[in-house]
Design a protein that fits this description.
272 residues; Rossmann fold; 2 domains; 6-stranded parallel β-sheet; 15 strands
């Protein structure tokens, strides 16, 4: 693994990195992250934290990491909420949506000219939220049955939180609406290539010079592979070592976490 990491990191110019399960669990920062940030800054590697979570804005994510002791500019974050807002703006400018989600999603939609509508929306948009109940599911079902398009910000079924627990995520929240209406949602978040292509443009790097780091085979690693990027799977999130064999594709590198990656990078730098 050391030689493979050496071959990749010596030429890498950009890194797209997932957050939940890679950088932190809930409000708990994972080992090696501060060293990881310092290493990227020292090597002048452009980096972007790209997350399928839609509940927080880039500013809120910046402040969250700031509370954990990391200073990262707001422009280094890109969320599925922003990707969803950009998608709807491109598809139907100045349209309206009934939204099941938190302020990060609602504000992103507003800023893209999408208004909130609980009477006759053109879209029903579902993102991560704790504000999830029978009433908003009922309304969403009625709107979709009336012709509204169903959009999900994230196809993840669960996400890691503190204490090794898993919380329901986007696909799990969309599922009741799909079942009740017989309509399938369109998911904008990873592995949708729209999100990764936008990330590469933001980094201003070619895919062969970029590394994708994530903890999920079915959203992160497949996104990197299909975009032509190098891939690193960390086992600090939802994927275990035994899970890899369930998929017909493989990451370039597998590490226990960012901490192990930094240990190997430090050894490589000493030998250089």
């Amino acid at each position: 693994m050391k030689e493979k990491i050496k071959d990749i990191v010596k030429n890498v110019k950009g890194i797209i990195c997932d957050m939940d399960g890679v950088i932190y669990h809930g409000n708990e920062l994972l080992p090696g992250i501060a060293d990881f940030i310092q290493w990227m800054e020292k090597k002048n590697i452009n980096f972007l934290f790209l997350t399928n979570a839609s509940n927080r804005s880039p500013r809120e994510l910046k402040e969250k990491l700031q509370r954990m002791g990391l200073e990262i500019p707001e422009e280094n974050f890109y969320t599925s909420a922003l990707a969803t807002a950009r998608f709807l703006e491109s598809q139907a400018p100045n349209s309206s949506a009934y939204v099941i989600g938190d302020p990060g999603l609602i504000n992103a939609l507003y800023e893209s000219g999408i208004t909130m509508n609980d009477v006759n929306p053109e879209y029903v948009v579902v993102g991560d939220t704790a504000n999830y109940n029978y009433d908003n599911i009922f309304k969403a079902v009625q709107f979709v049955n009336a012709g509204a398009k169903l959009i999900g910000t994230c196809p993840d079924t669960t996400g890691p939180i503190e204490g090794g627990l898993m919380a329901p995520s986007g696909k799990a929240l969309v599922a009741p609406i799909e079942i009740a209406t017989g309509k399938k949602a369109y998911f904008v978040g990873k592995p949708n290539p729209l999100m990764v292509r936008t990330g590469l443009r933001m980094l201003d790097v070619h895919s062969e010079e970029a590394l994708f780091i994530g903890d999920r085979m079915d959203t992160d690693i497949i996104s990197g592979i299909e975009s032509g990027m190098h891939t690193l799977l960390v086992l600090s999130g939802v994927t275990g070592l035994q899970d890899i064999k369930m998929f017909p594709y493989r990451p370039d590198i597998v590490a226990e976490g960012i901490g192990e990656l930094m240990e190997i990078v430090a050894q490589i730098d000493k030998e250089a």
